[in-house]
Description:
Elements: H1 30-42, H2 48-55, H3 59-71, E1 75-79, E2 85-89, H4 91-128, E3 133-138, H5 147-160, E4 164-169, E5 183-184, H6 187-191, E6 199-205, H7 211-217, E7 221-223, H8 226-232, H9 237-242
Parallel strand pairs: 3-4, 3-6, 4-5, 6-7
Antiparallel strand pairs: 1-2
Helix pairs in contact: 1-4, 2-3, 4-5
Amino acid sequence: MNKNVSHVNGGARDTRDPKEDRAPPRADDPEFQARFLEEIHANPMSRYAELARRMGVSVGLIATFMRKCAEREFLDVRQLSAKKFVYLLTPKGVMAMMARHYSKFSRNLDFFFGLTSRIHAVLGEMSAKGVHEILLWVDDREKEGKLHNWVEVIDPHLKSHRMRLLGVVARGGMPKEPLGCPVHITAAQIRALRLSDRQGILVVRSWYEDHDLLQALTPNLFGLTEESIQVLQRPGEALLQNLGIRPA
């Protein structure tokens, strides 16, 4: 092990309020360890105080992590001058840092495959009931800019079931770029829709007050997410009151 691993950089004093670190990460916390290695990789000549400020922890905790990572051979500590050190990630350190990204990627991939499986199954159910054209209901008033993502994800599954996208309900506002299909925003535009038995609505995201409007448009309603399914099931008065919504 490098003889400089016990070095505490420049004797920097910790000026943070102890109350700010009520639940500091443990020295064996893999998530914090990966973040720490990312900081070292991006700024190999950082002083302990600088690392502590950027990561929002105490200098003492940074010193502990520096020592632990050096003991595990994640870091190669080199002295450039009397008060200047450089901290380089070893191959083991790079692997430990990348493990965090791999874990996130794996979780996102699992979510994506689960979502696409759900989309394929719901569209298959709609097709089996004679629905061949759908209106995508993405009433996304809180998350602007998600419409294109939903259209792109759903489109290949529509083609595999030989279904067609009639349009999108986007009461959150007009997307910045055209979607290649009609976009209905206002309640008047939505009420003007006339859906036949061969047409249905796939609800991605909605609100409890949309229930009556949805029911008036068509009986062919299918929820993609747990939240949208709850909307279609018409929650009881107690739940509506808890949500601060007056029942119709």
